[in-house]
Amino acid sequence: MNTENSQQLVYVIDDDEAVRDSMGMLLESADLAYRCFSSADSFFDAHDGNQRGCLVLDIRMPGMTGLELQQKLAQIGSSLPIIFITGHGDVPMAVEAMRQGALDFLRKPVNEENFLERIIHALDQESGSWHQKLDRDQAQQRIESLTEREREVFLLVAEGLANKAVASQLGISERTVEVHRAQVMKKLEARTLAQLVRIHLQSE
Amino acid sequence: MAKTSQPSISSQLSEQLSAQLPGPATGGDDARLETLLKNLPGMAYRCLNQKHWPMDFVSDGCFELCGYHRHEIESQQVLWGDFTHPDMIEEVDRKVRSAAESGQPFEVEYRIIARNGQEKWVWERGRAVDRRSDGVVILEGLITDITDRKLTEAALVGAEAYAQAIVESALDAVISIDNGGAIESFNQAASSMFGYRSDEIRGQHCRSLAATSFYREFDRYFQRSQTPAKRFPSARANSLELNGCDKYDNEFPIVLSMREILDVGEKKYVILIRDLTEQRRAEKEVREQRDMLAHVDRLNTLGEMAAGIAHEINQPLTAISMYAQSGLRFLRRQTPQLQRLEDALEKLSQQAHRAGAVIERMQEMTRPHQSHQEVVAAEQLLREVHELAEVDAQIRNFIIVLRLDDELPNVNCDPVQIQQVILNLLRNGMESMRANHCKPGSKIILQARTSATEVRISIIDDGLGVSRKLEKQLYQPFATTKASGMGLGLSISRSIIAAHGGQIEFSNNKTRGATFSFGLPRHSG
Question: Quick one: which of A37, A167, B38, B176 could link to A174 by a disulfide (CB 3.0–4.6 Å)?
């Protein structure tokens, strides 16, 4: 799995070379790392699910359009935030894009300060969700190391049941519950009940 | 009175007819005289110079002339004055009377009304031969039927008057000249066209009706028209367009044609001249209207393309703005990055030029434009219009494929209007492809092929094709299948191509879609 320090990139996808190039230079001037693609197809081909950062996406392009790319990424579970850029004041398209979860919809020529702000916002958001995902992955991984019985005990304890209640529900002795619980705490690296509960929530 | 008259009739007849009859007439031989009188055309007479000229002798010719027999006239049952046309009797009487008084012979022409009511013209010659004891003058003479001659004369006069009337009322100038070119006659239309009265211009050389700058051409035409072998084959080809010049030195466009007149003796010619001022004015008006409509159509087309054009300009503007901001940021760093600033400015400048070029292309299309032909490189013309149409194609998500022969020649055309036609045809094609639900990325082909005489430009689409129904209204102004648009495009395109001497042809493709094409004449040299 990826480490926490995998780098965020701004993916610029526009069929106009000058627009791509100037956007790249602007990002460079703001010390943001970026990568350019001249079509939605070429980005999608290069995408492997590990990309981090955000997309700056032209809505109308020859071949796959921006909206189509958005749909395809959603289908494969990508959570990369998308900022749409359009040269046309195309309201129905903007509505559609936002409905499908786009972060923003900007018109060319863009206000650069605003543009950079939105990008930083997008990167923060992605960063948050990435960490969340990272925690979830970690929690799930730890939960997977539990035995069947330990897992049953974990779920009931995390729901707030006392040992006695757990024992009666699972039809085992209270002592056995205590042994399993200690094993669960150890495997999940939780010292308190509160930590156990959080791991349960993160895993969902 | 009969006694004394016999010899004098014979003497008068012999005098009158001596030129016509062989041998001298002999007096006193009644039988011979009778024969002689019978053979006479007309009627010999003797009468009294009294009211209605009572006659006591007439020859047998009287029957043929007026339908009465000798005895009816000689018995004075009918008088000669009864036959004479009432309109003319006074005049005849006056002439005869005055001649009789002075003893001179007289000659009169007048009309008579014969027994059957038929009118005849007669010629009469006579004179006083004697005087009765009571002073009444006795006349003798000859009356002949000249109706045929009179009719022929009248017909001749009529024909000439007819011809004269035609020439004078003609709207074209009709001028006759002699073999050397001197003007002999000048009709009314010629006078009002050139300002000369016919007596002012008569005798001058016809060249003086041409503007000075056209003298050489005129002389060449004049000589050629005088040489039958070199004469032009048809009347249409046998004409010359030039500027005429009137009395007041005003020049105006005319067309003239010259023909030999069939005439005995010296050769003569007739020149017909038509004033083309009105025709030229009308032509100019048509041209101006076409230009104006074409302009409206271009504005309309660009209006419809506004979204695409805005996009086309927005792209460089976006880049310019971003380069400018980037430059500022590089400059404002703690250690300004001047190299990157320079890069930014360089690229910014390029993009500004790009935007300028787009606007210039649009301006070319929107400017009011007076059509004129020039020598144009076909390839450049096609590449430019391709770029322009791309704007529209991008919005529609179609691709325009440019398929050009290597080394296209120069052509003669009005580049703005021809680009307008190509743009119209490309946009129509794409519209038809949209209606045919063509996939994004579908292709429309703009093709140019060279032949010996022309560059053939074809627009090959993948659309619905042209149905029978559509074919009928294809070129009608304001007929359109599109939801938006004025429906002027094709009718204007057609008139533009017609003004280039060609026509737009179309055919449905084998698989699907249609091909529209037209030719542009190659520039020679």
Answer: A167
Q: Over the stretch B428-455, which tens digit does the pLDDT of each residue have?
A: 999 889 988 998 889 999 999 999 999 9
Q: What is the mean pLDDT of chain A?
A: 88
Contact A35, A55 (CB under 8 A): no
Closest chain A residue to B398, measured at CA: A62
Domains of chain A, by residue range, sit at 8-131, 145-203
Per residue in A102-136, pLDDT tens?
888 998 888 999 999 999 999 999 988 888 888 88
In CATH terms, the fold of domain A145-203 is: Arc Repressor Mutant, subunit A (1.10.10)
Q: How far is A30 from chain B (nearest CA, A)?
A: 8
- pLDDT class for B478, splitting at 50, 70, 90? low
pLDDT > 50? residue B264: yes
Q: A8-131 belongs to which homologous superfamily? A: Response regulator (3.40.50.2300)
Q: Which of B318, B344, B394 sits opposite A108 (nearest CB)?
A: B318
Q: Rounded to the nearest 5°, which phi and psi values hold at B457?
A: -110, 125
pTM of structure:
0.60
Selected residue of A26, A38, A93, A111 to mutate for chain B interface (largest B Cβ count, 10 A)? A26
The answer to whether the CB of A22 falls within 8 A of the CB of A29 is no
Provide the pLDDT for residue B525: 66
User: Which residues of chain B neighbour A60 with C-beta distances below 8 Å?
Assistant: 394-395, 397
